Amino acid sequence: MRGSPEAFQRGGQYTVVASNGVGGRLGASPLDRATFTGFGPLVSRFQDGPVQVDPFADGVASTSVVSYRGRLYLGTDAQGTRAVGMDLDGLRPDDLDFRFRKDTQKLAGSSSSNTAGSLFPSIGFAGCQANMFQCGPDNEDGRALFASGSLDGSEWLMIGGTRSSGGLDYVYLSRDDDATLDMKYVDLSQALDSTSVRSFSAMGFLEGRAYLGMPSRDGSRRPELLALLRAPAANVRGLEARGNGIKGGACNPSAHDVCNLSAHRMPGIGAAGSPANPARTVGIDFVGELNGRLYLGNNGGLVRATVSQPLDYESSPSHWVSITPSAPEYLARESITTDKTVDLEPSDRAWSRMVVFEGHVYLGRNTTEGPQLWRCEPVRVSGPAPATAEDCDAGDWVLVAANGQGDARLSQFDNPNNTRLTLLTVNRGHLYVGFDNAVEGVVVYRSAVAPSSRSDFTGQGGCSAAMAGCAGLGGNGFGQPWLHTRFGDATSVGSEEQGVLYVPVSGGPGTPVRLYRQRD
Q1: Structure pTM?
Q2: Which residues, including other chains, have CB under 8 Å from residue 247's CB and lie 6 or more apart?
Q3: Cα torsion for 227, 233, 239, 241, to the nearest 10°?
Q4: What is the C-alpha separation between 49 and 8, in angstroms, rounded?
């Protein structure tokens, strides 16, 4: 038995696992274990304790969290076979299984490489045996990334897996919301350089499209950015997506289902851009939106689209414009880079997720010296075109919450142990900013106004973040700094009346993930 209810019950969900032992049996393998779930008092604030501890009872240290069909979805477990779905108040958690469809055709691209069967229960995990059900339909063998959004007028749950040897060709979609999530495949191979892509670094939905960013190492085609224009039809197993191909050719929405947007050519973003991104490994850190326009960035800078549904940079460069900050504080510091192409964490990204709060865009940047918090003020630069007074341009960026002590070009809230800005989100009427901290544990502050300085943020007990000794919300490290040193990707769900922020946190590999919640 794993997971003592006495140790885990306080503040939220606890899980007990019973498995076969000498002289006892629960069922035939793989059903030789059973999980039991219970609850403590309702959790409303970080200081109340975690709402979930080790949600799969398998020690997984990182999980993807997404809102879908009015519920929260966490996944996957260490074997890639399960997710957890629960109501937004944290109650009624359900164990969810997968059925991944296999691509047996080669009409528009590749076919699934796993030679086992036809329905797969797993998206795979590191070390799984190829051509067995424990790996994914295309022999995916690593951690998955979740996203959700609208395609063809319907809400979809998206799962992107990992193929550690390269040749990643598929993403999976489902409209299910029952106990078994039937996942349809989407064959992306016509639009990809399949030899270099191993995982997804960013996924998001905007204006009826899904945008997929993938890191790539070496070569000139780094990074990859795809626009998925259509979803699989209701009566088919998947989508043999027609694409514009890696050898060039313009994106044509009337003829293509997926388009390669030639991010490798974008200024600052890509290895073949002007200026070129010199990093060996280049990904897409985030995809965001303002005024119906796509924004994206990585260690080389920022770019936005000038139209609502942009075509590829190679054939339609006017659909894109560089908005990399021109401020001296930006130029004085160098963005972090990573050599990782799989299992990316928020701390590996040069930019945190983009958020819009009180009419301003906010972005967190991680530099080799420490984090920065940036705000876009669109009216600062309004011309000439393509600059506008409504969208972000290079001269619109202002450093926010600069240190009062130490390096004034950084936003560490005067704490040099705040080494990475990994949490940036809006929950109802508050902007939240959080830091990885290996010494005091994770640190979170929030603001109820469009912030410009540290004094606009508050911490534990409503203290001003500009005051010495002001701990983060819930206390630094949420009261257990040795367990809580780094954030996963957070998500906010709810309505105008009530917002609930869910934050996964852990101490890194070997430390099971815990899920915390803050209600506003």
Answers
A1: 0.91
A2: none
A3: -40
A4: 10
Q: How far are the Cα atoms of 142, 318, 436 from residue 465, in angstroms, in the given order?
A: 39, 42, 17
Please give the full DSSP string across 347-377, using - where no structure is assigned.
Answer: GG-SB---EEETTEEEEEEEBSS-EEEEEE-
Instruction: Annotate 35-44 with b (16+ C-beta within 10 A) or e (fewer).
Output: bebebbeebb
Please report, for residues 108, 241, 252, the alpha-carbon distance to residue 245 in angstroms, rounded to integers and kept in the order given: 11, 11, 11
Pairing of strands 52-53, 355-357: unpaired
**Helix or strand holding residue 328 (H, E):** helix 328-331
pLDDT tens, residue by residue, 226-279: 999 999 999 999 999 999 976 668 999 999 999 999 999 999 999 999 999 999
Decide if 68 contacts 157 (C-beta within 8 A): yes
Question: Do 336 and 366 form a contact (C-beta atoms < 8 A)?
Answer: yes
Q: How far is C-alpha 338 from the geometric centre of its chain's CA atoms?
A: 16
CB 155 within 8 A of CB 121: no
For residues 199 and 167, give the distance between their C-alpha atoms in angstroms, rounded to a whole number: 9
Length of the chain (residues): 520
Query: Token digits for 11?
Result: 């503040």
Terminal CA-CA length for the chain: 37
